[in-house]
Amino acid sequence: MQYHEIGKTGMKVSSLSFGASSLGGVFHDVKEKEGIEAVFTAVESGMNFIDVSPYYGHYKAETVLGKALKDIPRDRYYLSTKVGRYGKDGVNTWDYSAKRAVESVYESMERLNIDFIDLINVHDIEFADLNQVVNETLPALVELREKGVVGHVGITDLQLENLKWVIDHSPSGTVESILNFCHYCLCDDKLADFLDYFESKGIGVINASPLSMGLLSERGVPAWHPAPEPLVDACRKAMEYCKAKNYPIEKLAMQFSVSNPRIATTLFSTANPLNVKKNVSFIEEPIDWALVHEVQEIIGEQQRVSWANS
Questions:
Q1: For residues 268 and 213, what is the distance between their CA atoms, to the nearest angstrom?
Q2: Whole-number Å distance between alpha carbons of 203 and 180
Q3: Among 27, 133, 13, which Cα is nearest to 85's?
Q4: Confidence at residue 307, expressed as pLDDT on a 0 to 100 scale
Q5: Which residues of the chain have pLDDT under 50?
Q6: 268: closest CA among 258, 54, 129?
Q7: Burial class (CB in 10 A: 0-12, 13-18, 19+), 23
Q8: Domain ranges, ordered by start, for the chain
Q9: Which residues pair with 17 in a beta bridge?
């Protein structure tokens, strides 16, 4: 396991880290005991960064994770959670007000059985008024940082342009890290185009969803996946190509996503301890860069053909 610092935070984290969204049954129903065991397995395997959110499973993921954390020494991990996105009774809600952000931090600490959050993030800022994030949400979190309630402050979003806008309109040092997903994987490496920018601001980079929410898997995408059909077809063809070479696309995808030392860590989520062990074993093996290029070419060519015929 390799370790990299998140920006200038002093947090040196494992290149592969544990995303706890699955503990909330986000992707499919989970067995709580098995999910807790997955957390133990991740920490025992050298992962020292855990990311969660009150939104995942509408508080369930934090609650289940909190049960696991009770039995893990606090110096074995860094904990990241979020504010802004919530939900209740199956209904998603959003509230980026300063008041709700502060309340949320203390509620999360109670669910997680901890008294300090290493990294607090404004969650999925694309759903917020970005001016409110700059002028209200982030200042509230910075105040908690100054009080020692949280260690560091970050922002998360799918849209890299939104992350840049908020950083550009915030006082220097406000945002210490960004979390972006589905943009540093075999089928999309747009995040690489922004690394110089983030580094110039001293901001750490956290990557997530190395399998692009199922695109890069033998299981395939869930029905709700937003990817256009040509991309789904292209990734399916790439998966079949890897399968024929007896090199699972999941393995190649995991290896690729942790291969860039400029990205502090890549989050993956599972509630299955066997999957934790499997993914750790994947990244401990050398990557086949020739196969990476072949797969990327297959994906690009298949998309071009699909668009031309549409």
A1: 10
A2: 13
A3: 133
A4: 67
A5: none
A6: 258
A7: buried
A8: 3-220+250-287
A9: 267
How far, in whole angstroms, is CA 76 from its chain's centroid?
19
Instruction: Look at the alpha carbons of 106, 109, 114, 120 in this order and tell me if their dihedral is positive or negative.
Output: negative
Neighbouring residues of 186: CB distance < 8 A, sequence distance ≥ 6: 212, 216, 238, 249, 252, 253, 256, 292, 295, 296, 299
Q: What pLDDT, in 10s, does the model give residues 111-138? A: 999 999 999 999 999 999 999 999 999 9
Backbone angles phi, psi at 86, to 5 degrees: -140, -165
Of 145, 42, 57, 43, nearest in space to 102 by CA: 145
Which CATH code is given to the segment(s) 3-220+250-287?
A: 3.20.20.100
Catalytic residues: 56
Residue 297's CB: how many other CB atoms inside 10 A? Answer: 11
Nearest CA to 284 out of 41, 48, 2, 19 is that of 2
169: its two tokens: 């309109």
